[in-house]
Amino acid sequence: MAQKPIRIRDVAKRAGVSTATVSRALSNPELLTEATRETVFRAIRSTGYRVNRAARNLRTRQAGAVLVLVPNLGNPFFSQILAGISEIFGESDLSVLIADTKDHATAGKRVVDYFLDSQIDGMICLDGALSDEEIRQFEENGVNGRIVFACEWKHGSSLPSVRSDNNQGARLAVRHLYELGHRKIAHVTGPQDNVLTHVRREGMLAERAELGLPVRDEWIIRGDFSLESGRSAAERVLSMEDRPTAIFCASDQVAFGLISTLRMHGMKVPEDVSVVGFDDIELSEFYVPALTTVRQDRHALGTSAARLLLECIHADGAISNKHSGPVMIDVNLVVRQSAASI
């Protein structure tokens, strides 16, 4: 059962003073005697009471900043999303703060504390790995109306989100390989617990079923969106007796690691095996061979998320009916040199 939040009357009871005295200790401590101040502040510390400035300060936008949570700042995928976010907030009076969640870069600070300590007016979360406890804290403290998911999201959450049509992107990749004559198509996934992994896998499987393509367990290879997982996937492919003729990777980074490792072992791309990625990061066009990939409009993901958050902030955390579902950004297939007819 969730613990009830500590109220100012709880502090007053613990200190043996009135609620007005507690309020004066917080707002005008110089009006109280040193002994009374010490008694009140001791009660505040012992009860764990926190001044909830969110309702007051967020309404007047006194913090003047928004926070963007990024799963891994070292991943070039996020650069254009952050550029789009910065572009929109650059036209407002809100600064952009960035926290890398890969190694818990918030240094143990609860995300909700950024709101409660009046450091931010809103948040864009590019990381769908927020815990149920964090979501509960947002709701309990009344700040969930100022949070927007972008790119990733959390299943079961009512928080607004902006996302690419990942399902359609996976279907485009498989359809393209099918039209090139491939029937033995492998897939390298993202991290097992990532929402994008599941949606892209669902799209891949749905398109295979529609096209009547065979599905073999060994052709679904677990990855994690990284170069290293691409290398591991290539080693798996090289060890197979019945190798696929084409591989759809859940990210461009995976595709790069895969291709480089295959080439190190004498396999040519696309002559021996075709490869399709997902994201269309900047390097995709310049990689050798240039990567055929599903393009996400990352800049649009950023600008759309920023505009949506601004709307939430200006509406005092209220979401209009038009945002009852996710804002979907179209994807398209960019055909280059890494996939060819069989």
Automatic annotation (TrEMBL):
CDD domains found in the cross-reference section: HTH_LacI (cd01392), PBP1_LacI-like (cd06284)
Keyword field: DNA-binding, Transcription, Transcription regulation, Transferase
MF terms in GO: DNA binding; transferase activity
Domain spans labelled HTH lacI-type: 6-60
SMART domains associated with the record: HTH_LACI (SM00354)
Matching InterPro entries: HTH_LacI, LacI/GalR-like_sensor, Lambda_DNA-bd_dom_sf, Peripla_BP_I
Name recorded for this polypeptide: LacI family DNA-binding transcriptional regulator
Species this chain originates from: Roseibium porphyridii
